[in-house]
Amino acid sequence: DGGITQSPKYLFRKEGQNVTLSCEQNLNHDAMYWYRQDPGQGLRLIYYSQIVNDFQKGDIAEGYSVSREKKESFPLTVTSAQKNPTAFYLCASSILPQGNTEAFFGQGTRLTVV
Amino acid sequence: SQQGEEDPQALSIQEGENATMNCSYKTSINNLQWYRQNSGRGLVHLILIRSNEREKHSGRLRVTLDTSKKSSSLLITASRAADTASYFCATDGSGGSYIPTFGRGTSLIVHP
Asked: Are the beta carbons of A90 and A104 closer than 8 angstroms?
């Protein structure tokens, strides 16, 4: 089955820890995105990547880092510098940034600080 | 970055009624998309309408786009309890950004 997979589904972080959220897609999509969603809120863009080994900051990149070493993978690290990391994180991909096509989403990772 | 804003924020209707949600945006676009999100899940694409289109249908969904008013509407006809979800519009800018940018969504509850 083609799709986009996020793991883990639930993640707990202690104060001061870095944690990495996984996002893998087998859709052969060029573009990948990370969004953050807070309760009752919309999606805010954290980082995006349109090509391997290149990525750009979104609206709320502070306290986060990403890498794009492979086309299929776009992991997000939530660093200790992110002061309020508890949220629902969504990864998405699309064929080309200018493809006028839909974005496919993973099922999300819910991160909680304990 | 530009952002679509949905209205109303919440909508509660009875099964069989129609549900209408609106989206307004700020700058010119290439296309506008509507997505659905069930509680605690990822978003699912519903329909895309291009900037040169005025209306589009998909099953019980009808989307309109008015670029002069920078607004779009999503109509769900003959709603079902299974339509209960949050609905988001997403825009991508014709200025070259092409990054899907989402509003806050409309929370729809359909009572059986």
From this structure: no
For residue B101, list chain A residues with Cβ-Cβ distance below 8 A: 45
Q: How much is the pLDDT for B109?
A: 97
Instruction: Give B42-55 pLDDT, tens digit per residue.
Output: 999 999 999 999 99
For residue B98, which residues of chain A lie inside 8 Å, CB to CB? Answer: 97-98
Q: DSSP states of B43-55 as a string?
A: EEEEEEEETT-SE
Map residue B9 onto helix, strand or coil: coil
Q: For position A83, what pLDDT does the model report?
A: 87
Quickly tell me which residue has 């200790």 as its tokens.
Answer: A80
- Tokens of residue B26, six digits: 């700020």
A97 CB neighbours in chain B (<8 A) are 98-99
What separation in angstroms does the CA of A39 have from each of A36, B5, B105? Answer: 10, 16, 11
| DSSP conformational letter for B82 | G
Contacts 24+ apart (CB under 8 A), A44-51: A45/B1, A45/B99, A45/B101, A46/A76, A46/A89, A47/A76, A48/B99, A49/A74, A50/A96, A50/A97
Check if A84 contacts B (Cβ < 8 Å). Answer: no
Low-confidence ranges of chain A (pLDDT < 50): none
Dihedral sign computed on CA atoms, order B96, B61, B5, A77: negative
Q: How far is B77 from chain A (nearest CA, A)?
A: 23
